[in-house]
Design a protein that fits this description.
about 250 residues, mainly alpha, Penicillin binding protein transpeptidase fold, 10 helices, 3 strands, about 55% helix, about 5% strand
Length: about 250
Amino acid sequence: MFRRNHSRPSAFSVRRGSRGWFARLFRRLFIFTLVVVLLPVFTIIAFRFFPVPISTFMVLRQLERLQPESSLPPLRYQWVSLDKMSPLMPMAVIAAEDQLFAKHWGFDFAAIKNALNYNKTHSRRMLGASTLSQQTAKNLFLWGGRNMVRKGLEAVLTLCIELFWPKKRILEVYLNIAEFGDNIYGVGAASTHLFKTTPERITKRQAALLAAVLPNPRRFHANHPGSYTLSRARWIEKNIRRLGGTNYLKKL
C-alpha cells in the first residue's frame, strides 16, 4: 500500500513567501509614493512653459455645480499672458497680498508670526499670511481649508514652484487662476465679464478693485463694490504708489 504524503511546507518556505509578499507590497508602495511625489513636480515643470488649462479649484467648483440644488454660474476662464495685461494688475495683487514678493522664497515668515500671534486672541476672524506663491500652489493643486495636511502639501509645492518658476511666471499663473468673481477665474475673464474691457486696458482703480475682492470673491464684487471693497481698493492704490508703482516689477 502507498502511504500518503502529508508533509507540511517548511518554515523556510513560509518565511520566504512572507518576505516575497512584503517585498511586493513595499515595491508597490514605493512606486505609488514616487508617482505621487514626481507627478506634481513634472506638472510644475510643464506649467513653466505651457498655459494652465484648469486648476483643482476650478474642478472642485464644477463638481459643486453638478449638484441638483446648485445655482452656481458657468465657469469663465481665459488664459492671458502677462505681457497682454496692464502692469497695474500684477502691481495691484502684489500691493494687496504680498508686498515682499520680490524678496522672499515663497514664505513671509514675519507675516506668519504676526498671523499666529493675532489668531491666538482673535478666534472669530482668522488672519492669513499666505504669499502669492503659496496661493498659487493652493489654487493650482489643492483645496480650501486650514488643516495641517493641506498646509504641509502647500509648503512643499510652494518650494517647488519657487525653485522651477521665475517670479514673473508665478505672477502670470496666479493672475490666471485666481477667482475674481463667482466662478470667474483670471484677469482675462474678469476684465471681460466684470468691466467689459480687455486686460491691457484695465485702469488702476479697476485693478485695485479686482485685488480688493481676493479675500472672498463670492461675497465681494469688483463691479458693484460696497464700502469695504472701495476702502480696501483705496488702500491698495496707496500701496502701489508706496512700492514705487510699476517700476517694482523690474525687480522680478
